[in-house]
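Supplementary Text 2. Reproducibility record for the structural model of the 316-residue chain.

All settings were left at their defaults, and a single model was retained for analysis rather than an ensemble. We include the record here because the model underlies the residue-level annotations in Supplementary Table 4.
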Amino acid sequence: MTNTIDTQPLRHPEKAHKPDNPVKRKPPWIRVKAPVSREYHETRRIVREHNLHTVCEEAACPNIGECWTKRHATMMIMGGTCTRACGFCNVATGRPGPLDPFEPTNVGAAVAKLGLAHVVITSVDRDDLRDGGAGHFAAVIGAIREATPATTIEVLVPDFLRKDGALEVVVAARPDVFNHNLETVPRLYRPVRPGADFRHSIGLLARAKQIDAGLFTKSGIMVGLGEAEDEVHGVMDELRGAEVDFLTIGQYLQPTVKHLAVERFVTPEEFQTYEAAAYARGFLMVAATPLTRSSYHAGDHFERLRRTRAAKLAEA
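Retained model, structure tokens:
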């Protein structure tokens, strides 16, 4: 895998004026193989056939070769253009087009064709929509339930900032996992998540659990952006205070020279330390490795999460 990074000025016009950040060479534990398998190309064909976007492609996920070989594509609904301009994200920024009314049906059909036992549905931020796209999330969940009732559904939602009632719409659609990523520690929100609010995001996760106590809740952060260890522990404490069940921690990777620089590559041993600290705080499930992403091995993790909760309830 090469380290060549395209500036992609048309995807990120808001970053065109920013100075270039040199891209650090990745350490051996982060390098992945280029996707070449037959199954990868078949997954790509199904996604294209149904006119869908995936976060795997739009966010330049390093795990795409492995996941698509297993036919595990993460659907990104509501278009490929985001109304936010986060400092870490490779999804294009701009003015989105109208919602595709056929997208829920197309997602359901693609999930069925891929034979997914567990699917992750995420989206761009749609601050232009009155409900932030909550109704569209609900429609997609409903279409998947109709097309393939046995599939478990995980939603990775935006923050629905200033979108009263949006959270309730998504939770009422009964996803199996409700995920909203904090992304980083509070001190780094301004450069990493401009337009977002840490306290609001924590409140969103807490409120989801309050609405439906049986709902699995999940969140994730990136490391390597300049955060301190005690700040990561502080985020863990905040999430447990919101009764979040599942935490993911992965290495931030710089998508282009116009994005935030990687301050350092966190070692696998440090990730193990974070994992132990998170389990000690009571999370039911923790995934903490350099290549961990929200949807990476999500199906396997969901089954472990479900078994862990069942075992704890049996002990009570």
